[in-house]
TrEMBL record:
GO BP annotation list: citrulline biosynthetic process; L-arginine biosynthetic process via ornithine
Domain Aspartate/ornithine carbamoyltransferase carbamoyl-P binding span(s) in chain numbering: 5-144
Domain Aspartate/ornithine carbamoyltransferase Asp/Orn-binding: start-end pairs: 150-293
PROSITE patterns in the record: CARBAMOYLTRANSFERASE
A Pfam family this chain is assigned to: OTCace_N
GO MF term set: amino acid binding; ornithine carbamoyltransferase activity
NCBIfam families: orni_carb_tr (TIGR00658), PRK00779.1 (NF001986)
Known EC number: 2.1.3.3
Identification of the protein by name: Ornithine carbamoyltransferase
Superkingdom, taxonomy of origin: Bacteria
Entry's family note: Belongs to the aspartate/ornithine carbamoyltransferase superfamily.
Gene: argF
Keywords from the UniProt entry: Transferase
Length: 305
């Protein structure tokens, strides 16, 4: 029997495993609608979402169904968790009724408890600490257009403490690229590894970068800080000035939703919209391959050469 797999953090996969996922994602993308897939045949996967979602929910529900499974969506108000039931009890019941859990919640610890007590695969669909599915897909999207990300400079402009930036920082060590974060000092990345640098200068972060990346200034759960953050981040916008100092073939990504003329200028978003929407679409293909990996049905023999 194959060991149980979870994807709670970007650290849960090696580069070799990630590249296996990327290869299968490319195959899924190329052949979508042409082949019947049964990686999750006769399986039901629960989507437990305690935070709002557009792309994550849509991409995972479609992914489960296109792999031959059923997706069961539950928000926090649908569960006794909202009334204080212990996670241990909820997780063990889910483990006896469904085949896997895709969870979007606040605490990474809550996700980890589901993995401990559920005895079924658990996938992190976003916590306050990480958004590993987003960044795994982002790296795939970069490499789809520009080749290997190894050795490249990636500039993240905005909150270096947010879940997306944290996952980028952790991924830098796995894929050996250089992440430069431009942010006010209070929002420098807390991830300490030799591939991550912090600066207060957008120009310094974006200089010769191969990818410019941003996210909303105010993450879910921090809405009470919105006014304060709009003042603190007012000088941290991706715009044409940032593009001018970057590499000539620089890509611009945004994990969405995007607030024009805040974290990204309306002009730059419009100019780079095709790449950004492709970045969003690739969530579906990468997550299909991730699901196949999690259930132990992805290995080299299953991938067409």
């Amino acid at each position: 029997m194959k060991p149980l797999r979870h994807f709670l953090s970007i650290k849960d996969i090696s580069e070799k495993e990630a590249r296996l996922i990327f290869k299968k994602a490319s195959e899924f993308k190329e052949n979508r609608g042409k082949k019947n897939l049964f990686f999750l045949s006769s399986q039901t996967w629960a989507l437990i979402f305690r935070k709002p979602s557009t792309r994550t929910r849509l991409s995972f529900e479609v992914a489960v169904r296109e792999l031959g499974g059923e997706a069961l969506f539950l928000n926090s108000q649908d569960l006794q968790l909202s009334r204080g039931e212990p996670i241990e009890d909820t997780a063990q019941v889910f483990g006896r009724m469904v085949h896997g859990i895709i969870m979007r919640t606040f605490s990474q610890k809550e996700l980890e408890l589901f993995a401990i007590y559920g005895n079924i695969p658990v996938i992190n669909a976003l916590t306050d600490e990480e958004h590993p599915c987003q960044v795994l897909s982002d790296i795939f999207s970069y490499e789809e257009k520009r080749g290997s990300i190894e050795g490249k400079k990636i500039a993240f402009v905005g909150d270096g403490c947010c879940n997306v930036a944290r996952s980028w920082a952790l991924a830098a060590e796995i894929f050996r690229f250089h992440l430069s974060i431009a942010a006010p000092p209070l929002y420098f990345s807390p991830i300490d590894n030799p591939f991550v640098t912090n600066t207060t200068s957008i120009e310094e972060a974006c200089q010769d970068a191969s990818l410019l990346y941003t996210d909303v200034w105010t993450s879910m759960g921090k809405e009470e800080e919105m006014q304060k953050r709009q003042i603190e981040f007012s000088g941290y916008q991706l715009n044409e000035q940032a593009v001018k100092v970057a590499s000539k073939d620089v890509l611009v990504f945004h994990c969405l939703p995007a607030y024009r003329n805040k974290e990204i200028s309306a002009e730059l978003f419009k100019e780079r919209a095709e790449d950004i929407y492709t970045q969003a679409e690739n969530r579906l293909h990468v997550q299909k391959a991730l699901l196949a990996w999690v259930v132990g049905k992805l290995d080299a023999s299953l991938i067409s050469e």
